[in-house]
């Protein structure tokens, strides 16, 4: 089984999430769910985590260190 397409797809998805969370953090875009106002600081953390997972997925895809 070839896992490279999965790694590229998930890496791309996490890259998009990281970019959007980073933009929200930098531009201070408000977010609200119903009456709950979401603070900005989680966006900075989520951007870093999503970027890390994205880089990890792309590195695995490029090095071919997948089992299957």
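^ structure tokens above, recovered residues below v
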């Amino acid at each position: 089984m070839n896992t490279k397409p999965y790694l590229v797809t998930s890496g791309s998805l996490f890259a998009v999430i990281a970019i959007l969370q980073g933009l929200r953090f930098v531009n201070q875009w408000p977010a609200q769910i119903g009456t709950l106002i979401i603070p900005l600081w989680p966006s900075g953390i989520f951007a870093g985590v999503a970027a890390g997972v994205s880089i990890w997925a792309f590195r695995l895809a490029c090095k071919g260190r997948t089992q299957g």
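The longest strand covers residues 31-33.
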